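Hi P.,

Sorry for the delay on this. The queue was packed all week, but I finally got your sequence through. Input first:
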Amino acid sequence: MITIIEDEEIELRTENNNIINFYDIYLKDRNECAGYIKYRGYHCGEKIGDVGYVIYPKYRGHNYAYKALILLSQHLNEFGIEDFWITCNIDNVSSKKTIEKYTQVKPKELGENTLLYECQTLEKEKTNKK
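Then the structure:
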């Protein structure tokens, strides 16, 4: 495993530096895996990739998914990727809070139970605000 990107608390580790990948979310102070975040690449002919994440139950409630989103956003930006989707179940309150903490974008409904958030990397959001 190699560390791809890190902050003071967590790091994203993976087997290779391919952008379409699963990244384990490691807690630096304990060297424990708290979950993973993944960038699944392009869908439906769009140049927008899909991001998903899982935080294991004993690590929930510490904003690790949010912090991992920020790190992945920085990593995607290094590859010239500025836009991505995140979907979640409409009943998944924790995931909705995480996504809405990351972005101010209002979700679109996909079917009865799924929300789609069209997000941007933080670097692109900064550029758009200027």
